[in-house]
Q: What sequence folds into this?
């Protein structure tokens, strides 16, 4: 007797599509096959796709910021929105505040997440202070405790690291087996361009994109790849926005480097012209790197189709638009450089790729599963407990109705922001039932699951997941 049987659906993993029933016991997948026995509960998935729950390995929730600016999502609203968008695991960042150690920051993030989550969560560590003590002691201890990925920034005052600091952080990754994600934009070049634009009085949101042109991202991408080559470590290039940065990834791979590439919906669906909206409305689209043009969008689609990109993440980094403590903060109104960077998108990531990618024939269903779930689990040490449909794996599942049509409207979404950058976009296909650890969390647009059902998940060393790490402990 199963706890739950999903009957008659079309299953897909990252490698194959097949018709089967799926039986769940104790929160894990217990059997996959035809004509399974009865379940205490049964779901009819006739005409639907049964996919591994989405894993969004790049989201920002409840991050502190200076200047009195509030992030629009905490762990409750952020994971609720993720869940409704077909996700069962998210990987937000842990950003230490000034003077705070990473261990103290993690304590604060665990406190913010505890009992609040609708999806499972795990944290990446943002390295802002690569001191000898941090690199030599703190980070190795944290990696041993299951925090196995770091992010470093080449831009943003207060966050950016110089080349020596990046190399030292990569070296810690080399010694510990952790994986480093890099935000590639040349801060000095950006500052130079900001100075020129402000001197000309060109301060509207559109200048955000003009001061972060492709060259700024391409140069930093090349440099990050070179530093990883020197340090002899794999590297993740996050939120790639254009073809020239993609070419850098291709060249590094051709030289034999292990590079993981990530892109996001904004680089497929938006352009810099979206930043030109009237009355500062362009602020809604301010994110870094900025959206580019149609040629860059086409290049990013090619990267999705041909394998330059392994990861399709949202980079959900939500601020409210019509809010003095969000995008329209009083300082933001004086210059684009004070508009908080980041846009919401955790709930629309999967429907956009499903509709624009699978339904329009650009990618097949296994590639969709790889880009949105399996590769995230593999890259960040959650596989095969997560990211696939296999016996013994967590029963984290999204059931998709490929015939469901809707027009994206923020009023129907579940995040804490007050707009969607994709308002008005018509999509075909939506995750109508979402199951976390065997529990039906969302069904036909209704929230059935409880806050707190989502758990913190410790991770293995990336790429080192054993064949059966199913006994990995979870802690609260
Ligand atoms: O504009 C963005 N992407 N904000 C989020 C922070 C980051 O760099 O990922
Ligand atoms: Zn970034
Ligand atoms: Zn200008
Ligand atoms: Zn980000």
A:
């Amino acid at each position: 007797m199963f706890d739950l049987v999903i009957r008659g659906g079309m299953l897909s993993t990252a490698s194959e599509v097949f018709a089967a029933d799926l039986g769940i016991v104790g929160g894990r997948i217990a059997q996959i096959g035809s004509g399974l026995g009865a379940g205490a509960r049964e779901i009819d998935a006739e005409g639907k796709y049964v996919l591994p729950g989405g894993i969004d390995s790049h989201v920002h929730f409840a991050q502190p910021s200076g200047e009195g600016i509030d992030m629009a999502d905490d762990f409750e609203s952020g994971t609720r929105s993720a869940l409704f968008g077909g996700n069962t695991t998210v990987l937000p960042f842990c950003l230490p505040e000034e003077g705070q150690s990473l261990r103290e920051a993690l304590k604060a993030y665990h406190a913010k997440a505890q009992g609040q989550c609708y999806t499972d969560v795990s944290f990446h560590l943002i390295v802002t202070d690569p001191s000898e003590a941090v690199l030599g002691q703190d980070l190795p201890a944290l990696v041993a405790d299951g925090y196995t990925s770091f992010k470093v920034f080449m831009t943003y005052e207060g966050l950016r690291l110089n080349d020596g600091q990046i190399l030292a952080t990569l070296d810690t990754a080399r010694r510990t087996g952790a994986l480093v994600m890099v935000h590639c934009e040349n801060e000095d070049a950006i500052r130079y361009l900001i100075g020129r634009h402000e001197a000309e009085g060109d301060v509207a949101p559109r200048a955000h994109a003009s001061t972060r042109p492709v060259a700024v991202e391409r140069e930093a991408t090349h440099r990050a790849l070179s530093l990883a080559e020197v340090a002899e470590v794999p590297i993740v290039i996050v939120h790639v926005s254009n073809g020239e940065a993609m070419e850098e990834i291709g060249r590094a791979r051709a030289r034999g480097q292990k590079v993981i590439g990530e892109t996001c919906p904004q680089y497929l669906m938006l352009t810099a012209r979206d930043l030109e909206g009237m009355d500062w409305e362009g602020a809604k689209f301010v994110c870094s790197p900025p959206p580019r043009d149609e040629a860059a969008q086409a290049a990013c689609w090619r990267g999705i189709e041909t394998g330059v990109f392994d990861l399709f993440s949202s980079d959900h980094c939500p601020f409210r638009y019509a809010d003095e403590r969000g995008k329209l903060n009083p300082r933001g109104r004086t210059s684009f450089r004070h508009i908080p960077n980041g846009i919401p998108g955790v709930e629309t990531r999967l429907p956009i790729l499903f509709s624009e990618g699978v339904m329009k024939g650009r990618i097949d269903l296994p590639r969709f599963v790889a880009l949105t779930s399996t590769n995230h689990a593999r890259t960040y040490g959650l596989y095969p407990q997560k990211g696939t449909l296999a016996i013994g794996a967590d029963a984290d599942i999204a059931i998709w109705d490929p015939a469901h049509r809707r027009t994206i409207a923020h009023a129907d979404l579940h995040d804490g922001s007050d707009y969607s950058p994709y308002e008005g976009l018509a999509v075909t296909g939506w995750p109508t039932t979402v199951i976390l650890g065997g529990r039906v969390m969302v069904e036909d647009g209704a929230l059935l699951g409880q806050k707190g059902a989502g758990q913190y998940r410790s991770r293995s060393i990336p790429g080192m997941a054993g064949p059966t790490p199913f006994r990995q402990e979870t802690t609260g």
Summary: Residues 54-359 form a domain with the TIM Barrel fold (CATH 3.20.20.140). The pocket of N-(aminocarbonyl)-beta-alanine (ligand 1) is lined by residues 60, 183, 239, 287-288, 315, 317, 341-342 (CB under 6 Å). Residues 214-231 form the longest helix (18 residues).
